Request: fold
Amino acid sequence: MNVLQNNVKVKAPGRAGKKAVEFDKRLKRMLRFPFFIFGIIVILFFLLVVVFGPVLTPYDPALPNPGYTLGEPTSDFLFGTDKFGRDVLTRVIYATRLDLMIALFVAVLSFSVGSLIGGIVGYYGGWLDKIVMRIVDVMFAFPSFILAMAITSALGDTVENVIIAIATAYTPYFIRLTRGEMLTVRTRQYADAAVSVGNPKWRVALVHLLPNSLTPSLVQMTLVSGWAILDAAGLAFLGLGITPPTAEWGVMVSEGAQRIITGEWWVWLYPGAAIVLAAFAFNLVGDGLRDVLTREEQ
Amino acid sequence: MPYLFRYIFRRFFLTLIAIFGVIVLAFLLTRLLPNNPAALRAGPLADEAIIKQYEKQMGLDQPLFVQFSTYFGQLVKGDLGESWRTGQPVIEELGIRIPATLELALSAFFIALVVGLTLGILAAVYADTWIDQAARVFATLGASLALFWLALVGVYVFYYLLHWAAAPVGRLTIGLSAPPDVTGLILIDSLIDGDFKTFKDGVSHIWLPACTLAFIVSAPIIKISRAAMKDVLNADYIRTARAIGVSSWELFTKDALMNAFIPILTMLGIVFGYLMGGNLIVEQVFAWPGIGQYAWKALITNDFNAVQGFVILIAFVYVSLNFLIDVTYALVNPQIRLE
Amino acid sequence: MEEPILQIDGLTVSIQGEDHRRDILDRLSLKIFPNEVMGLVGESGSGKTMTALATMGLLPRTIKITGGEIWYEGQDLLKLSNREKRAFRGGKIAMIFQNPRMALNPLMRVGDQIARAVRLHRDHPTNECYSIGVDLMKQVGISDAGSRSKAYPHQLSGGMAQRVLVAMMLACQPNLLIADEPTTGLDVTIQAQIFELIKEIQAETGVAVLLITHDLGVVSEVCNRVGVMYAGQVMEIANVAELFQDPGHPYTQKLLKSILRVDQISDLDTSKALAPISVAFDSLGCRFASQCEEVCPECFQMRPELPDDDCDHVVFCYKYYEKRNK
Reply:
């Protein structure tokens, strides 16, 4: 009997006992991040709404219903109705699909473009690096919301333009992140080894180095998703990008804003709460990922 | 000594490049994108001839390079063009509205600093306790709240329900006149004038928008001051100071805070950026007569010159502020100052 | 027999893991006498630094003292309040660490930092503290002390910085100085200078020194007595000469054998024959047992009680006492 066996004081470590202990440990480790779990659950919930949305509600988000405008929440209209008599809950559900789609596209777009540029620039260096980084500096000279706002107003008010505008505002983050990682990673030995065996440099960069530079970017992607929702809604609130009658959270809040002094709170509260919930979830997941990933490095 | 100058000069040079880049970017946004600015200006009812007239007037028929030189030349003289909406020089219109925005931004910044630094530092000192957890949740919440929604909630609760805040109609109650202009900041000017009634009125109008902005902006402040303080507290020199028996208070102020100050300072520039983005929305909700509201009106009416002017101004302020922070950093950090 | 200046009795220091408690130090006992340089050797992770931190009351928040006593001049240090502990630090027991440049506040001039130590521990009016500090700098061999005192830590070399720290500790006028691997990262020549300095200070002021190191060569040159640690337990304590000539504990023997030549300066870190320390231990037995060639079954369950007589050579091993009693 070797007393140096393991850390855990287990009474009778039979096979079933050992498995229970390991599961218990993993569960405890996950539960140390309750907020993280909460964030993931919320996002999954939103995804369910995105997929099953239309099925969940009998109403049409766009159809006005003059009979019951600005109605308080009732059992028929759980979130009440807006000034055109449309069911707020239905519109929130449809808006979920739109806003999450925007978040997804912005995150993926800025991540792909930014990481690619950052990886290339980080690997090759030289004057290309200097020029790109100066451009990145210029982009960082604008607060991201204002940059997205300027681009949207220049391009025009469509959903695609909003996505492009916001993605453009966040691409520099990924360029900087990936470039930074690439600079550390490219000096590692396996890169030299791969090149010396005969792989062309670009393939080494793409296949070996780039994937290893992406960890912080993954965290950033989650955060950017949350920010994208806030920005898109913010732009819509100001009347830019996505406009009425589209069902989008920001649009709904702006429509409801006029109702603030007359007291119909449900028109703007629920869509706004959805924004906050979504952004909160993405932030929690992003922070949790960062904690988990940095802890592993330790 | 020379290293310090080289450092500052290098930063200054990079700043100039950034500003130049900003100008180029702003130019490109308006000239190279699908919408024809002349058509926008002329309006939806104009015909070909009128559009052509506008093009000529706006210099859009010139080659791009010429357009840029004219544009650049004007900018250097401080001429941001005229607003399409009002016909007035953009720079004047912005100038009139800057004090309002400044007052709001500074108030919000001050509140956010006090709250954010306190919470962040406390969270680091009492790491892994409930204080730490609470501060982090508060920070995440602040980062997730949509500013415009929070503003609406604030107006609904504090004005509509509780009547603790004044109506969101601007800086003062309608009908009340502003105190004589010394700084342009109503709160200060009314105090200078001895006019407490106006001061109180000003406060009742500014506290809600300022706190709303502050709530959002305090989130990154908490995060970064916590991280900075935590790093400092784990440093070896803190252990040395403890080992010679330095009191907790002196340790906190002389050793910890002073060293955490530097990374916190560099973060403040970024935070200010959030503030400027947020001003736009808050001014809209509270009918605050600042440059944010001006920019919004310009956006809605496709007043390109005004939008462009606003964007350039903001970027210029942001970049200059970061430069100032860099210089302060260089002066405060002996490793750079004395190289 | 002299009274020891510091006596550690059965000290246990633990960290609370997820579902178990891990003992970083296990019933550690040692004595330090006035006017001597006592060495404490062991591999990385053997608990040497923890012992020092526990004595100073500087353990990190997650690590707690779960047993034993530390006696200093008749007082149990572990029973003191925080404020009393703080009075001890520097004043009675001082400590210097590795990486001297990082151990100094980067924003304060070194002269001011030493002056602060003087202010805290000596009764001098504030305006004199700075010049006393400069004198101390001279005492530790810093040339041009006056202008050097205006320097910031990043402007000093490693050796210079360590001298500054020694000066700071001297300002506190301690009775016991703990030096935790004070020359890690420094040049070999500078290392020699620092140890010379420590010996000088010891001779001049009569301060007792606990020198923590993994370098047996240093021990042979600088220390009077030495304790050998492994995995949080003390294995053997002896006079230096006797330890090298007649090591009693199997671990010590293995240690000495793994060095090419006993009189060469050698580094315990490079000896590979010994197990990693990160494994946690459940029993109250000797933690070297699983690698010991002379192990007997009791070794896994418990460790020998110390004989009552205050002998110079203490070995925590059953086999040793068996052999001695034959």
Remarks:
- The radius of gyration of chain B is 24 Å.
